[in-house]
Amino acid sequence: VGSEMCIRDRLYGVATAFRDLTKEKEIDRKKTEVVSMVSHELRSPLTSIAGFSELLLDENLTREKARDYANIILKESRRLNDLINKYLDISRIESGKSEVHRTLLNIEDVIRSVIDMNSFIAESKGIDVEIRIPENISNVFADRQMIGEVILNLFSNAVKYSPSNTRITIVVEDNDKEQIIKVMDQGYGIPEKALNRIFDKFYRVTENENVQEEEGSGLGLALVKEIINKHNGRIWAESQLNRGSTFFITLPKTNTEDFDKASVCLL
Ligand code: ADP
Asked: How far is the CA of 219 from the centre of ligand 1 (A)?
């Protein structure tokens, strides 16, 4: 927006105001995303919860039916809870409200504590979990809580999308520049055309019946990707249908950008 200031035909100056349109566009995009999430993703669990609650009110209901309905309500509320929490986590990271608290991390500690606390989900399907980490693996500079979240998401997906009595293997490798974490399963696999899209918000593979039956928000991998991006790492997946999938994450070993920032702060 520009305007010329003239007094008696003489030009005294030009005032110019700039508006940051990229920011406004981003806010618009976010609003559209929230509206579409509310209409598609939140509506379906809410409709189930309301519908089955109404059925529960029927006085002639058998105990067995009442238990079935209550279980559906519980399942749908959990789904709603997971959806909202993950969505808020992603938004906080995207907007920079959630800061990355980097410390020197022993990746083996992080992986083992996440798997120990959640091994019951694999046990319930008879899935073996193997962790292979070389003894002399170096530390990485990363946010413990966030990396724990990444490992938990990849591990629980590996369990969810695998048949019973298979194996999950978590491997950590090192090279000069980065640490590579691989989460391998012997599960249903991911169709090739979906391999890039699984990291998009709300995307779920729908072709496979076994996959379809599993509950999910389609936000886990979007959150994982956001966290890895914040750490200047990379994430990708390789997969073979009905053979299994491997998720790869890399974390830079020394983050020169962070050291630069730290020295700027000291100046
Ligand atoms: P969800 O809540 O649906 O699990 P995610 O964002 O974690 O959401 O994953 C997105 C989709 O990617 C899943 O719905 C599933 O179709 C596919 N997927 C993720 N991990 C695996 C895996 N280990 N094996 C097969 N498919 C997977």
From this structure: 9
Give residue 248 CA to ligand 1 midpoint distance, Å: 14
Backbone angles phi, psi at 130, to 5 degrees: -115, 135
Q: What is the pTM of this model?
A: 0.83
Cβ of residue 250 lying under 6 Å from some atom of ligand 1:
no
pLDDT in single tens digits along all 267 residues of the chain: 445 555 566 777 777 777 778 878 878 887 787 777 777 888 889 999 999 999 999 999 999 999 999 999 999 999 999 999 999 999 899 888 888 999 999 999 999 999 999 999 999 999 999 999 999 899 999 999 999 999 999 999 999 999 999 999 999 999 989 999 999 999 999 999 999 899 999 899 987 788 877 888 899 999 999 999 999 999 999 999 999 999 999 999 864 455 445 444 443
Neighbour tally for 178: CB within 10 Å: 18
Whether 246 and 260 have beta carbons less than 8 Å apart is answered as no
Q: Ligand 1 centre from 35 Cα, in Å?
A: 23
Ligand 1 atom closest to Cα of 162? 24
